[in-house]
Structures are given as C-alpha cells and as structure tokens.
Amino acid sequence: MSADRINYHATAIVIDGTGLLFVGPSGSGKSELAFSFMTEAKRCGLDTALVADDQVLMSPKADRVIVQRPESIAGLFELRGSGIVEIESIPSAAMDYAVTPVLHPDTPRLPPETEWLDLPTGNRLPLIRIPLSSITPYGKFAALAQNLFKAQGK
User: Fold this and answer.
1) SS in 3 state form for 17-48?
2) Taking a C-beta distance cutoff of 8 angstroms, is the pair 37, 13 a contact?
3) 100 partner at 20 to 30 Å CA-CA among 5, 13, 31, 117?
4) Measured between alpha carbons, how far is 145 from 27 in angstroms, rounded to an integer?
5) Contact indicator for 126, 111 with CB cutoff of 8 Å
6) Among residues 2, 19, 7, 39, which one has the least CA distance to residue 119?
7) Mean pLDDT of the chain, nearest integer
C-alpha cells in the first residue's frame, strides 16, 4: 500500500456513476444498507458495482476522494449472519456522497439540513442518513440527494 492511501473502515459502491461511501461503526449495518441500495438500483435498471466492503483504500485527487479496493477482498461482500457473497466489483471510484445507516428509534425526525463527513484525506462529502428499516432505501437517498443538490445551488 502506498503512503498516500489511507485504509478506512467503510463500504463503497457506485450506482449509475455516483460513488457512495457507507460509513458508521462496526456492526451498524453499512454492508446491509449498501447491498439494499444495489439491489433496489438494479431492479430500477441502473448500473451498480461494488468497490469494496468493510475497508477501502482512500486517497485525495484534486477536490475528489478516490477509493480503491484491497485486492485481497475484491468482489467479496459480507451479508452479516448469512455469509459472504461474490458480486461484480470495480477496482476504484470517486466518491460523491457519504451514507450512514440509522436505527429508527435513534433517528431525529429531521436531521440537520446539511451535514458533511470530514475524511482523513482532508476531503469532505455530503452526509445523508438512511434508516435501516427503509423499504426503499435507494429511493430515499435519491430524493434526499436531489434536494441537497438543489440546496447547494448546483
């Protein structure tokens, strides 16, 4: 591993060209939520791919953060309590958003209007909270991301 890459505890996927970094403590549901996003997006006809599950190698590139998969876990995805599955993966991608799973009882009705995740690379990503119990988690993300995009004037 090169000195400019940071090993970071997260799951990274790409849906239709948008990089999503799932963050949270161990056992919080990052992998489960990422898998739900991918499954729902595929049903909608969108391209999806895993970069890495559980850990990514992160580095800054201009104003973007790039994540790479450790080759030892390429294409492997842990479905907690069910096992490890092999799915389509890509070696690296730029990340656009951070997503964190939340439990309904712990979720405020309205989280802060604009949240950011500060990364160890010095980059920041807009942070979106998605309840683990969501029936359509990717749909919620898409709606929230669209509103965030408008709020930022883009």
Assistant:
1) CEEEEECCCCCCCHHHHHHHHHHHHHHCCCCE
2) yes
3) 5
4) 25
5) no
6) 7
7) 87
